[in-house]
Amino acid sequence: MSIARALARFADGRAATFSAFVLGALAVAGFAPVGISLLAPLSLAALFAVLAVTRRPRRAALLGFLWGLGHFGAGVSWVYVSLHLYGQMPAPAAALATFAFCAYLALFPALAASLASRIDAPAPLRTAMLLPALWVTGEWMRSWLLTGFPWLAIGYSQADTPLAGFAPLAGLHGVSLATALAAGLLAAMAPASRTSRWTLAAALAALFAGGAVLRGIAWTAPSGEPLSVALVQGNVPQNLKFDPGRYKETLATYARLVESSRARLIVLPETAIPRLLDGIDPRYLDRLAEHAYAQQGDLLLGAPFRDRAGNYYNGVVNLGATPTRFYAKRHLVPLGEFVPPEFAWIVSMMQIPFSDFSRGDDTQAPMRAAGVRVALTVCYEDAFGEELIAQLPEATVLANLSNVAWFGDSLAPDQHLQISRMRSMETGRPMLRATNTGATAVIDERGRVLARLPPFSEGVLQANVQPFSGATPYVRFGNAPALGTAALMALAAVLIALIQARR
Q1: Which long-range contacts (CB under 8 A, 24 or more apart) does 194-198 make?
Q2: 270, 337, 381, 386: which is the annotated catalytic residue?
Q3: Are β-strands 397-402 and 372-378 bridged in parallel, bridged antiparallel, or unpaired?
Q4: Mean pLDDT calculated for residue range 50-60
Q5: Exposed, middle or buried: residue 135 (CB in 10 Å: 0-12, 13-18, 19+)?
Q6: Average pLDDT, stretch 21-43?
Q7: Which residues pair with 452 in a beta bridge?
Q8: Once rounded to an integer, what is the mean pLDDT over residues 343-361?
Q9: Angstrom distance (rounded) from CA 48 to CA 38
Q10: Average pLDDT value for the chain
Q11: 232 vs 348, residue with greater confidence
């Protein structure tokens, strides 16, 4: 029996449905913190090999859905921790909500698989061109539909491989496309002839070689002198963060950590002070500002604030030598930071402070602080690369203020760190990450972690950071190159299939 026939029989059996789920879960080990990068494209290659011989759209959709369910069920299981342990949602409801969320995310690989099966194209064409193009298009749709959730896009798994070289050229989706293409080439090898295998292997080697060459290019240049920075990690337990009895201790902790630093730029985490800014004792804010001023620099404080109209925002304020400015978070977390009316019943089951923020303006300029311009993101905002580049090329440093304590000791902090690394690669800028419990880290312009505090520890991470200027192709063109290439690949696959069908 040929390999193609064996795959076709396997694709129609029960073993394939179980395997699709397992393969999706296995791919999570390709991401941080496990970081076995090869597992992600191998998992995708195995799925593509089966989908290539699946002619029934419903069957293909089921296999894609089960892969996605395994992938997101294992990879974002920390949503349950947030809902149940810290949101106080009853365990059965939290489990059901987490399952529903993962099932929604799984619809995107299901859609890609179903669409691919509807094109009557030869298996090699489907695996090496059509499926990679549709897969990345699905990831892009997932990044904006219903406000978007681009977590665990396949490209993140390649942050430490040559394929990351495509990041400054075409962004995360460019890396995802290269990863999916590598998976497609691998999948096409198994049933191919010996001659075709050599051709496919050469294409795969060229893909990785191209990424390695791109990774060696310096897309941006140093700008000015290195800047001394201090990133503060308060390690305030999430279950006590908003406890009024813990408030004074939180203030004392951050004041002590701030005053232990002599850096020009000091960065505190998201909602470091768990109270509206106008409710904080002005003498305390003056104390922080005076310390920053004494260093001839500034402090970036994560704190919710209110405008004159009474709207309140999750944001950042600078204190110190530079005139005070505010940054208001633009991309809010559904159900956590804003509540669509139709989902108010879910929020009524949780106890989440500040669960209905207003959305910040899309055109906010980088914040001036300590003599540099800082492109700010709060929490998971830095998962949206095309939104971040709206502050570039003016900004020379990136900064993310987060509180991932909502997800406990889970995969989330390391996954988020990997996301931040991709933003540095895309933009050619260093990233400063100040978090409550981790991962507080300094990342250089090539996405390398230069220093990091241990998770769930109190401390100050001090470093000298070199600002960078210039614009990578991704900063100039955003997602257009990646999506355009995916569209051309899909169109070429369809045209070739039509031509072959007429012969």
Answers
A1: 196/124
A2: 270
A3: parallel
A4: 91
A5: buried
A6: 97
A7: 441
A8: 67
A9: 15
A10: 92
A11: 232
3-state helix, strand, coil in the chain (%, to 5): 55, 15, 30
Is this structure's pTM higher than 0.90?
A: yes
3-state secondary structure at position 266? strand
- 379 a catalytic residue: yes
Q: Active site residue: 139, 241, 337, 379, which one?
A: 379
Q: Mean pLDDT over residues 233-257, rounded?
A: 93
**Which pLDDT value is given to residue 123?**
80
Question: Tokens representing 427?
Answer: 């933009």
Helices (H), 216-312: 238-241, 247-259, 282-294
Q: Check 102, 139, 241, 329 and give the catalytic one.
A: 329
Domains along the chain with CATH numbers: 3-218+478-502 (no CATH), 221-471 (3.60.110.10)
Question: Residue 288 contacts by C-beta under 8 Å, 6 or more apart in sequence?
Answer: 254, 255, 258, 299, 301, 319
Whole-angstrom Cα distance, residue 485 to residue 37? 24
pLDDT in the model for residue 83 = 86
Averaged pLDDT for residues 380-403: 96
Structure-token match 């690989």, residue found: 109
Tens digit of each residue's pLDDT (9 = 90 or more) over 75-101: 999 999 888 888 788 999 889 989 999
d(CA 26, CA 20): 10
Query: At how many degrees (to 10) do helices 480-502 and 167-189 cross?
Result: 30
Question: Does 329 participate in catalysis according to the annotation?
Answer: yes
